[in-house]
Amino acid sequence: MNDKTDVSRKEESTAGTQATLTPPVDVFEDATGITLLADLPGVPKDALHLHVEAETLTIEGEVALEVPEGMEATHAEVSLPRYRRVFTLSRELDTDQVSAEFRNGVLTLRIPKAQHAQPRRIEVEVA
Amino acid sequence: MYRSLFPHDMLAELDRLQREMSRSFDYSPSIRGMARGGVPAMNVGGTPHSVEIYAFAPGIDPASIEVHIEKGVLVIAGERASALPARETKANVHIDERFSGAFRRVVTLPDDVDPDKVTARYRDGVLHISIKRRETSLPRRISVQ
To answer: Which of B 96-135 lie inside 8 A of A, CB atoms?
Structure first.
């Protein structure tokens, strides 16, 4: 998420003006963080935009299919070339440490909990 | 952090509702149907030389996808394992929307395709199947003697 400025500009231009598909997601949480999986089929790696600002996570992607010249679509279930979904994060999540992997159209995001929010085992000292 | 009873993302809910409604109303006159909303989602198109099928099947090992054509019917089948943590682990599932399990979809092909000239490529989670049409069915200009 180094290219934050670039991505945020992109978001301003597309937000709210174009219809988008909502990608299905799985979200699960363990003691150390939250894992999010999102299905974004047809999106090449360079057309995926992840954006974290304050406590908002935005996932955006543009579909790019190899279409032969002169093709006429006869049936379309994926009818929009754009995905977008916004999540509100919570305070205990460490947004600086988000890691992302994008493979075969599936985005895997790992958002760890901040150090202070992780469970700790407190050793009992015997006097 | 549990899923809210009153979802705040109304647009996403409307989108889901619309998908479900179209699933129940959008019947096809073909006897083999072309029902929407199946897994994987499909886009179909054609050029004068080929029929192009795009199956949106993210997160699947390409080697495990079964594609075959039999008597003018294209079948795409496979399986996607659930990514959710096992029940025994100490993890809470907050949202569970992604498809998991076995899938199978069938498409009736036009009569003029050549089942021997098929290419299938898997890229960015989309299976693109291109089937050439028979040369004899291509539009031709007939010269007048």
So the answer is: 96-99, 121-126, 128, 130
Quote the CA–CA distance of B134 and A91 in Å, as a whole number. Answer: 61
Instruction: Choose among B56, B129, B16: nearest CA to A76.
Output: B56
Which chain B positions have a beta carbon within 8 Å of A109's beta carbon? none
Q: Which residues of B touch A29 (CB under 8 A)?
A: 1, 91-92, 94
Distance CA B84, CA A81 (A): 28
Q: Which domain holds residue B36?
A: 10-85+96-134
Residue A124 covered by a domain: no
- pLDDT by residue for chain B (145 residues), tens digit each? 455 555 556 677 777 777 777 655 555 555 655 555 577 899 999 998 899 999 999 999 888 899 999 888 999 999 998 888 887 777 888 998 898 888 889 888 988 898 889 999 999 999 999 999 888 766 777 888 8
Would B140 be classed as within a structural domain? Answer: no
The answer to the question of residue A36 being in a domain is yes
What the block records as the tokens of B121 is 């490529």
Task: Give the total number of structural domains in chain A.
Answer: 1
Asked if the Cβ–Cβ distance from A74 to B126 is below 8 Å, we say no
ipTM: 0.75
- Which residue segment(s) compose the domain that A88 sits in? 4-67+74-116
